Structures
1.
Amino acid sequence: MLSSNQRKLITQLSKKKYRISNKLFVVEGKKVVNELIASSWPFQNLFTTEDNFHPDAEKLSLEEMKKITHFKTPSPVLGVFILPEVQKLLVEPITIALDGVSDPGNLGTIIRLCDWFGLSELICSKTTVDCYNPKVIQASMGSITRVRCYYVEDLGVTLTALQKPIYGATAKGDSIYTAKLPKEATYIFGSESHGISAYLSNHLNGELAIPQFRKGSSMAESLNVANASAIFLSELFRSS
Amino acid sequence: MLSSNQRKLITQLSKKKYRISNKLFVVEGKKVVNELIASSWPFQNLFTTEDNFHPDAEKLSLEEMKKITHFKTPSPVLGVFILPEVQKLLVEPITIALDGVSDPGNLGTIIRLCDWFGLSELICSKTTVDCYNPKVIQASMGSITRVRCYYVEDLGVTLTALQKPIYGATAKGDSIYTAKLPKEATYIFGSESHGISAYLSNHLNGELAIPQFRKGSSMAESLNVANASAIFLSELFRSS
């Protein structure tokens, strides 16, 4: 049985300000909740409509679950997890940074990509969607347990302090297929609608692009940012 | 001023069966509607909340637009376009086929990817989400005007008839970074949750995989299907 306070809190946790003030976030879906538990991520509550999901889980009716889900269709499992403390930067040889990526699905799949290619950190501008947004968590498919998003006030200052060359993914850059892609460097991807901000552009040591193969007067303007990141990461790691 | 019949029809067009019975589909967003008009795609109606969008556009109030949009937030432009007749297969050297991709955002960005790499056709199983779904159109960002989705009853039969080797993207396949990737071949991507169907697996001449770079006991199970397609397409075209 869900108390009205619990219900109110869980509903509020769809918003970043309540996640921060309560130091909690919500994860839905059996697979992702299980991954967080397996990674020893501390939780406050587990709710389930199933029997025998977890000894600490509270059983809810489907009606109760519908009242707290952040999605149109509830999952059989919802967990309230503790927001981690901000830690120090890890600084791996290859750093991926995001400047204003706003779509939760894009951030989630970029986290999943970083995980696939063995990266454990993603540096994000404050203008990038919060990684504890329920849709980001869902799209990350558990990779949030292995890839930490590190949010910074000023990407230009933080990335310059890493003392590695900084490359931006832009429409007009050199082809990633022919340019040298250093294995100790930072690669930045910009927002879905505006690309890399004008301010951050001044901090770049170079610009790189995925060349377009269609010829003609009518062609695509850009690739989806997660797909562009996928191609960059593949190109960076394929020969390493 | 919108008639109640128009309103009812546009709302119904969110469903595939009404798109087919009316031979119409809805496109929202100025950029995508403009791309369809520029490609001479025939339309039945254009609606806009703006002045001077197009000589044939009917002006609507924001309130009226809110009643017909298929999204949470209406765009300033909504067009009702004519569903094209099914044409013959184009058969390009490289064929991309989708077996049960169900997420509209994934199909939309895969269409955008095919466009980027110069492909004009995507062969889809009947179990793949309809390409005239409003969310697919939106995610394709106008690439639907250059990449046609060809839906087939039986992917196994259609792809075998192309008389090219058929490769499936699977978790256990050979690394795309070391395997030979023929430039005349079909590459299949399976559904988000189940991969390539057991039936279609019997038609494969080979299996290919994107190797995972993270080492350890805990790792990602898979990549998002659109990101996997991005990496495959990049690998296929990078040296062509």
2.
Amino acid sequence: MHKNEHMSVRTPDPDPEWTPDPDDARPPDGANPGWLSDVELAEVRRRLPLLYVEAVPVRVDGLGRVIEVGVLLRAKSTGEMTRTLVSGRVMFGETLRNALFRHLEKDLGPMAFPQLPASPVPFSVAEYFPLPGLTVFTDERQHAVSLAYVVPVTGTCDPRQDALELTWMTPDEAATPEMSAEMEGGRGALLRAALASVGQLR
Amino acid sequence: MHKNEHMSVRTPDPDPEWTPDPDDARPPDGANPGWLSDVELAEVRRRLPLLYVEAVPVRVDGLGRVIEVGVLLRAKSTGEMTRTLVSGRVMFGETLRNALFRHLEKDLGPMAFPQLPASPVPFSVAEYFPLPGLTVFTDERQHAVSLAYVVPVTGTCDPRQDALELTWMTPDEAATPEMSAEMEGGRGALLRAALASVGQLR
Amino acid sequence: MHKNEHMSVRTPDPDPEWTPDPDDARPPDGANPGWLSDVELAEVRRRLPLLYVEAVPVRVDGLGRVIEVGVLLRAKSTGEMTRTLVSGRVMFGETLRNALFRHLEKDLGPMAFPQLPASPVPFSVAEYFPLPGLTVFTDERQHAVSLAYVVPVTGTCDPRQDALELTWMTPDEAATPEMSAEMEGGRGALLRAALASVGQLR
Amino acid sequence: MHKNEHMSVRTPDPDPEWTPDPDDARPPDGANPGWLSDVELAEVRRRLPLLYVEAVPVRVDGLGRVIEVGVLLRAKSTGEMTRTLVSGRVMFGETLRNALFRHLEKDLGPMAFPQLPASPVPFSVAEYFPLPGLTVFTDERQHAVSLAYVVPVTGTCDPRQDALELTWMTPDEAATPEMSAEMEGGRGALLRAALASVGQLR
């Protein structure tokens, strides 16, 4: 039903140190004072809301209409499979556009050729809290606020790092309750909001 | 489950000449050249896209969060019951704000006290075509393009004209497939897009 | 200062029958009942608001940031030169996307390769009235409501019909009072709103 | 020309420890682990982008149209007067709505009765960097990302803390280069974007 970019799924080999946001553990460049050690990041996560960007990769037709939506499949350290969106932290000194591009490249590979939107206004702002109830989004690690964008990609997606594969599906498939149930942190709601923002939610 | 503004439902007394947009048949003021006779309107409807405004009435809490959504219940000329949103045509010489206010007053009564949004940009643009397939929205009478807004109301709603009642429901209730199935012209999709635009679609 | 796509400006040769929206005079296909004769169009223009789409063509860099804005230069039938945006009417039975693409092709040529936005929500809705005062936009011919979009173009623009040339300029140049003063119908305000929507208005 | 809520300007009595965001120095409640000491805050500011919310207070007419814009006048520790918007940090565990409401109350007083927007999507996202050039916004203290909203207020504004007064002005007055030049951190651009988002920028 779904078309996968990688039909031969790599064997999941989860790193016990794996985090859904592994770039946090490596500095973008050695001298950046914005780099945080694991201990420091753990500390900051209990003190401040962290700023994230999130992207829903899509394929569009010649008139710009969204015809397919890309969802990432990941293996958690427990071995459990989960679906998610392109997502990652904004670093100190980094613009939102640069962060968005960096995480798209990290998750979809260098040949995805994402077309970042001209407008920096997100289609939605997702607020993740450690405890459920305040919003529909949860992240047990932290309080994160995520600016979410729909991003057309025109090239070939080659998921890297912890993403096992990128699954392309129709807007209708992406909006099903089954798909929502598989998405981590309540991102099914974010995916539906993305579809609504492009006029593709029934 | 749903709270109705009018618990004692008036007996449906459908006018055979009834249209969902009855203001078309009466001039806002006698001398307006924008007034169209029934024959003229029928003619225009086969030649031009008509411009509509549409509103999803909501109740908000003290922080502006949407807690209830209002949906109109109407009787069609066939006696069939159907649900819809506040909706109506923009007249010649009329601003979008004036049209939106006029239709809110027509459908919710003079004491609804709608708070029109500061921004004239709609949360969605719904394209209705006589034949299905081009979009999810249909209107057998015409090609209509509708600018849709979420509008908080702070007063008492007293549906008039052809609306039998206004039903208040939670965002979750409004988003169910059952509710969508009851809404005319595919407006269930528009209602969900409204919920997504205010961060209330799961 | 400005880069023009056509440095050798063609001699203005205004057609006395010229209208800023010449496609109105020709059916998209012969049998379309939405085609209006000049007499019929003149009649409709005094009775109904007409639905338009409008586009601000832009060049973006690799991160999607707008670096140049395209403005059309036209000769009016009086010989006067005026600046405008890509603009045109939505025909009966035509989707907004099709109308937007058709007018971009009409005004920028077939090799412009516009990237229509994934979202059908405009950055602004411009209301044009025959008489000034209701809004900042005027159109002496009619009451028109225009859904306006920022559209990146990646190809070569070759203005056709009545557009003498397309002038590319920086966002700062496009936002000057001088440029606004040259734009017809108050579209300088629309151009600034376009820049603001992409974070490029100082 | 401008109407001020406080015509009798209090004598500026700048605290040498003054910061434009004084709530950072006090915990919302004593036990909140999100409270940062001055030393910790100074440290974090060199390591992470901080999340802010920002509000442009407006007065609207009965149709929701913006007729006046509120701008705060402050005294900096140098004695220099500067204009700014309602602005402040989002605390750990706090929703965006709660942060927005808290800062509106802090800056406009408890009787302002702000009507927070139903949609959590900002009209603009302003990125402030210590060094100029990356964007039009600067903040020498930190890298801050600010979600900006237009917020109608219906009550009486009574600026507190460091805001000397709130000046109400027309949209045209707010958009002048003179006003922009007086606003700190490049917020004149944000104010114009706010006006554009509500269709009030010429």
